[in-house]
């Protein structure tokens, strides 16, 4: 018999925590998971999943317009935000149910309370119950950062945006990263007047420059507005509810909704980490080793709370590797090389491996191949949007070290192509593959 109530106590039932819980339980551990909000975490409840459903909803705006060029007699259509919102939220409920079932079927005890660490092996729940565990896993994710400016309380974050009472006529989105570009596309297609306000002149830092530039160009062409190098001063709320965003260097912008998309910070506040000597990095993330172990030997952490790569599939891998290492007698680390990622903008962009700039800075000689084309469907639809595919090759070895693309279905195409990049295949291997015609993806094997 163990001296502890549980073999594993997990704090946070998001992607990483749920995976770790069920795999540890499958290895025979007695597991409990504490969650103060809903099961599923950011991705399922207020992130990737509801966002992607809104993206699908938004895309109908263009599809309905394009359909006319393909012979369909489409009457003028109205968009009803509340219908989409409620259907999306209902699907989130369904998925949350599936996550709960997973925990249930693996006999993981779900404790719907806030948990605070009181020592290396102990946790106190909001109800006052004290619990001991051989190991504790922290998987509490990250939380939106709101800039410290006067009137910031009038804005919302991605936590609230899925629950709006109505679709804003005018929206200002602060930030130039993932969430800003994805929601700019969504609200623009729903008919909102969208302005992205960014503190620098750079969107989507980390992605290949040419691909980012193409997104900016297409977004502007569609009618999304951009204010770069903007120094926000304060936000005022007028009597009629209008928000006026004031700048130190430019005219104010009035809007009905202000969305902060200014990054996310590790969610560690009030967790009691100091009671067990768990160290944090300068950025406030939990410091871990390659096995996700913190500075306290019995406490581990996975996912966004460790700020390694803020991506759901990465958190899932970390949670799985942790459970195999600690409970499966199979020490495993996560390989962070060539992790593909995408921005579900309109059109979406995706990338894996090195950007051109990274390759030029780290490799001897680099060859770049690009295909800049107008997808067949866009041609007939009269849509003046060009796709751009880019391959980065190490000229010494002929190995493909990076693939970057923007265009319809780019994330779907890149996921498959990422296997080749991860496997270290050469440009010649791409060339040797016969094209699948007619498709957009065939451009990848026809690059000259
Ligand atoms: P990002 O890190 O992508 O972008 C943050 C943006 O806000 C940057 O443009 C940054 O500017 C700017 N910014 C940061 N701090 C301030 C500030 N104080 N005032 C004004 N601007 C500021 O964060 P997001 O919030 O868009 O997304 C959070 C994370 O969630 C992402 O990093 C990503 O890992 C994950 N995510 C992933 C998605 C996907 O995989 N498709 C979708 C959505 C989120 P600067 O560049 O100058 O620092």
From TrEMBL:
It catalyses: 2 glutathione + NADP(+) = glutathione disulfide + NADPH + H(+). Its EC number is 1.8.1.7. Its cofactor is FAD. Residues 6-319 form the FAD/NAD(P)-binding domain. GO terms for biological process: cell redox homeostasis; cellular response to oxidative stress; glutathione metabolic process. GO terms for molecular function: flavin adenine dinucleotide binding; glutathione-disulfide reductase (NADPH) activity; NADP binding. Disulfide bonds join 43-48. Residues 339-445 form the Pyridine nucleotide-disulphide oxidoreductase dimerisation domain. FAD binds at residues 52, 304. InterPro entries: FAD/NAD-bd_sf, FAD/NAD-binding_dom, FAD/NAD-linked_Rdtase_dimer_sf, GSHR, GSHR/TRXR-like, Pyr_nuc-diS_OxRdtase, Pyr_nucl-diS_OxRdtase_dimer, Pyr_OxRdtase_I_AS. Keywords: Disulfide bond, FAD, Flavoprotein, NAD, NADP, Nucleotide-binding, Oxidoreductase, Redox-active center. SUPFAM superfamilies: FAD/NAD(P)-binding domain (SSF51905), FAD/NAD-linked reductases, dimerisation (C-terminal) domain (SSF55424). Homodimer. Catalyzes the reduction of glutathione disulfide (GSSG) to reduced glutathione (GSH). NCBIfam families: gluta_reduc_2, PRK06116.1. Belongs to the class-I pyridine nucleotide-disulfide oxidoreductase family. This is Glutathione reductase. The lineage of its organism: Bacteria, Pseudomonadati, Pseudomonadota, Alphaproteobacteria, Sphingomonadales.
């Amino acid at each position: 018999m163990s001296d502890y109530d549980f073999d594993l106590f997990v704090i946070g039932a998001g992607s990483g925590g749920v995976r770790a819980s069920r795999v540890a339980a499958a290895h025979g551990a007695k597991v409990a998971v504490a969650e103060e909000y809903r099961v599923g975490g950011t991705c399922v409840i207020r992130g990737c999943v509801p966002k992607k459903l809104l993206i699908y909803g938004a895309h109908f705006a263009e599809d309905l317009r394009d359909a006319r060029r393909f012979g369909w007699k489409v009457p003028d259509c109205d968009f009803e935000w509340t219908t989409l919102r409620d259907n999306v939220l209902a699907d989130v409920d369904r998925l949350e149910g599936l996550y709960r079932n997973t925990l249930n079927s693996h006999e993981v005890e779900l404790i719907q309370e806030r948990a605070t660490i009181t020592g290396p092996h102990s946790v106190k729940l909001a109800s006052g119950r004290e619990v001991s565990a051989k190991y504790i896993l922290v998987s509490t994710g990250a939380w939106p950062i709101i800039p410290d400016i006067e009137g910031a309380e009038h804005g919302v974050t991605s936590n609230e945006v899925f629950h709006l009472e109505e679709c804003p006529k005018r929206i200002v989105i602060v930030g130039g990263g993932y969430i800003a570009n994805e929601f700019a596309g969504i609200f623009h297609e729903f008919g909102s007047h969208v302005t992205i306000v960014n503190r620098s002149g750079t969107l989507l830092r980390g992605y290949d420059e040419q691909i980012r530039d193409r997104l900016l160009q297409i977004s502007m062409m569609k009618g999304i507005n951009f204010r770069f190098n903007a120094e926000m001063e304060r936000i005022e709320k007028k009597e009629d509810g209008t928000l006026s965003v004031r700048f130190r260097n430019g005219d104010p912008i009035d809007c009905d909704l202000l969305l902060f998309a200014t990054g996310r910070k590790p969610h560690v506040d009030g967790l009691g980490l100091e009671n067990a000597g768990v160290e944090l990095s300068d950025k406030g993330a939990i410091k871990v080793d390659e096995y996700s172990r913190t500075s306290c030997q019995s406490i581990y952490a996975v996912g966004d709370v460790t700020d390694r790569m803020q991506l759901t599939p990465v958190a899932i891998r970390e949670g799985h590797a942790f459970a195999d290492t600690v409970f499966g007698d199979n020490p495993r680390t996560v390989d962070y090389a060539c992790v593909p990622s995408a921005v579900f903008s309109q059109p979406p962009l995706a990338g894996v491996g090195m950007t051109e700039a990274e390759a030029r800075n780290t490799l001897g000689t680099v060859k770049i191949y690009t295909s800049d084309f107008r997808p067949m469907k866009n041609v007939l639809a009269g849509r003046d949007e060009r796709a751009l595919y880019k391959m980065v090759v190490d000229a010494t070895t002929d190995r493909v070290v990076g693939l970057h693309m923007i265009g319809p279905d780019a994330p779907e195409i890149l996921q498959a192509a990422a296997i080749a990049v991860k496997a270290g295949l050469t440009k010649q291997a791409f060339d040797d593959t016969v094209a699948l015609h007619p498709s957009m993806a065939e451009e990848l094997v026809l690059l000259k």
